[in-house]
Amino acid sequence: MAMKGGFLDNLGKIYGIYTVGFIVFVIFLGISEAMFGMSPKTIGYVYMAVTIGLYAMIGILSRTAKVSEYYVAGRSVPAFFNGMATGSDWMSAASFIGMAGTIFTLGYDGLAYIMGWTGGYVLLAVFLGPYLRKFGQYTIPDFLGARYGGNAARSIGIIAAITASFTYLIAQVTGVGIIMSRFLNLDFTVGVFVGLGGILVCSMLGGMKAVTWTQVAQYIILIVAYLIPPTVMSYKATGNPISEIAYGQALQKIDAKEKAINADPKEVEVMALWKKSADELDADIKGLPGSLAAKKTALEAKLAALPATAAVAEKEAINKAITALPATPEIAKEKWSAAKTAALGKSKPMKPYLQPFARLDMKNMLALTFCLMVGTAGLPHILMRYYTVPSVKDARMSVGWSLFFIFLLYFTAPAVAAFGRSEVLNNIVGLPIAQLPAWMANWGKVGLVAFKDINADGILQWYELTIGPDAIVLAMPEIAGLPYVISGLVAAGGLAAALSTADGLLLTISNALSHDLYYKMLDPHASINKRLAMSRTLLVVTALIAAWVATYKITIIVELVAWAFSIAAASFFPALVMGIWDKRSNKAGALAGMYVGFFSCVIYMVGSRFYGLDIWGVKTISSGLFGIPLGFIVTYVVSRMTAPPSQELQDFVESVRIPRGAAKGVEE
Amino acid sequence: MAKELAGLDKEKLKAYWAYNVRLTTIVMVIWFVVTYVAIFFAPQLDTIVIAGFPMGYYMGAQGSLIIFVILIFWYAFKMNAADKTYGVEEEEE
Q1: A256: nearest CA in chain B?
Q2: What is the pTM of this model?
Q3: Beta bridge partners of B54
Q4: Of A249, A298, A327, A492, which residue is 20 to 30 A from A240 by alpha carbon distance?
């Protein structure tokens, strides 16, 4: 106990020393690289070993056998540090690696993600955070169970929490595997298990307590890693190291160059060639299966016609082309259709980066922003974090700190995107193919950068180049001319982002099962030891299942994550908000609201994705647009049509609304 | 009920909650304007360019975010003060 008190009293000092220590470690690695030629592979391994070892060590130091420490970190996390922990809990591999790339590709319309994923905290701050803290239990289903009297509401809460968190978890585990395999050349599966090993030690031994202090450590690594490359890039490009201010100049350069490119005769020629290629592919697709057979026959005839004196290489090239042909007409159709879409995309002049609604119409931009905001405020692994602060007062401040720490990364992401795009447009396009910088070849190997000199002039045109969204953040250190030690740091940052989110999600799922399902519903007399043992076991099992699912590398995973948001938004958010803000809402209303919200959301998702369902042109990604208001309306109407909640429940609501006193009607 | 809620009188509680609702409404109006109204008028805002930033783009990339952060802290300070004014602050342990 003495140590714990000492730790909490000295948080600032401890994490200050930690931050300085980490920077010294990076500098030390940098010196090793520059003076002693430490290889990128060694640097990668040192980073991974040190950071994962660090997370495991924090876990061991924070091990606990107390229920309140395991579930809510003893409710002793100061607002500021809970803000940091929430920051890394919230920012996933997608925020860290994907966000800037999304803006790079979508321009203004990509900002829906920036606003959506930050504006949700305003909803959280005024509608939920402080009240959940006052309620002061362990999980989100706990609140639903207490407010809506019983296991029915709790069960839906459990199902929604697990559905939303598990899909999200798989995406994080996949992210861990990708980063490990790319930077360490480990096999994907091995990468997944090595990465998970570190966080399992952490969350299994220390529950929320360990996860919190690890997340703070992970936040520091990820923010340092994210901010260094754009700072250097900005200084080099504009003389101003503050990239968030300086990138206005980059935006202007992008705009000017885009106009020039669309008017350049060489680029126009390339666009026409893509149009031709798309038309040919279209003819091939229409001509299936005959067109596939014809291609094969033509190649075989060419092979047969080769003179006996022909070089072996020439023969092999034709054989290779034959084996590269799609095996069946079905595969051919899929492959050629994808190629056709890509070719068509490059056959039309690009719309300006800065122009609003060029890629997403205004209606969908508004809808997407709204769904992302509400989804943010409804995700259980985030809501849970506000149980860990000492008081309601701290909960209010902590939401502010959370958003501040998230803001540091999110307001830099558009700067990363702008500098990346300006660099590619102004300094890469127009280079002779032979003189392209090394980073393009490096990231080309893993398929993130691709180009095809379709007009064979030996010069790279914009419309000949394809850049994967993930490449922007990952390649930024190389684009900025930084040593490999910074690339490794970015990888360690991405890993920290993925692991910290995975940690929070794992805990949410295993708590929903061990606390809500097992302890609250199945065996209310279970001893503390039994409950904790159960929770730790479920944690490992959940992690293993997630890792196993991730090794299948399902391609639909990105969509699933977007769906998780809409599900959380449509099922949790209305029931939670009404539970606090509308005393008259009752069990029947909340249950009906959650069912209707959940199913209307799922029906629109599946319907619009697979069966062409279309209401007002709303895209699949914004499916929550219908479920969210429906959830509210149904809860309101059904509650009014049925008997009001008991006096005890109304007193309970009253007690949650004010900071003073204990929450009513809650045991323990 | 008054007794149950830590000896607070009902009128004061009502006034406290009304104050909270008013504050929440203000926060929500500002939140709505800086995101949704700003998106709606982005093409018009873009005609103003400051330091290279068209204002419609700037609002989406930075302006709204800065306002969100300030808004949450402002709400927290106001409510933490109101707790004391209305005598409903948490007991110190």
Answers
A1: B52
A2: 0.91
A3: B49
A4: A492
Shortest alpha-carbon distance between residue B41 and chain A (Å):
10
Nearest CB to B72 within list A248, A399, A411: A399
CB–CB of A356 and B42 under 8 A? yes
Q: Which of A80, A95, A122, A646 to mutate to test the interface with B (most CBs of B within 10 A)?
A: A122
| HSE of B78, CA atoms in CB hemisphere, 13 A | 17
Q: Kindly identify which residue of chain B lies nearest to residue A651, measuring between CA atoms.
A: B1
Structure tokens at A115: 């606003």
B11 CA to centre of own chain = 24
Instruction: Check CB contact under 8 Å for A658 and B76.
Output: no
Cβ contact, residue pair A108, B60, below 8 Å: yes
Give the C-alpha separation, A50 to A48, whole Å.
6
**Chain B: closest CA distance from residue A251 (Å):** 7
pLDDT per position as a tens digit, B44-92: 999 999 999 999 999 999 999 999 999 999 999 999 999 999 988 887 6
Q: Is the dihedral of CA A47, A50, A51, A56 positive or negative?
A: positive
pLDDT digits (tens, 9 = 90+) for A159-203: 888 988 998 898 888 888 888 887 888 888 888 888 888 778 888
Taking residue A371's Cβ as centre, other Cβ atoms within 10 Å add up to 28
Q: Which residues pair with A451 in a beta bridge?
A: A465
Peptide bond into B43 cis (omega under 30): no
Q: How many other β-carbons are positioned within 10 Å of the β-carbon of residue A265?
A: 7
**Whether the Cβ atoms of residue A400 and residue B72 lie closer than 8 Å to each other:** yes
Residue range B28-41, pLDDT digits in tens:
999 999 999 999 99
Q: How many CB pairs under 8 A join A and B?
A: 148
Token pair of A448 as six digits = 């993130």
Q: Exposed e or buried b for every residue in A638-649, given b needs 16+ CB within 10 A?
A: bbeeeeebeeeb
Read off the amino acid at residue B52. Answer: G
* Closest residue to B6, CB basis, from A111, A396, A660: A660
Of the candidates B39, B4, B42, the residue with the CA atom closest to the CA atom of residue A370? B39
Contacts of A111 in chain B (CB under 8 A): 57, 60-61
List the alpha helices (DSSP H) in A551-642: 557-581, 587-610, 624-641
Please tell me the distance from the alpha carbon of residue A166 to that of residue B86, in angstroms, as a whole number: 43
In this prediction the ipTM stands at: 0.94
CA-CA-CA-CA torsion sign (A340, A344, A346, A351): negative
Neighbours of A352 (CB within 10 A): 15
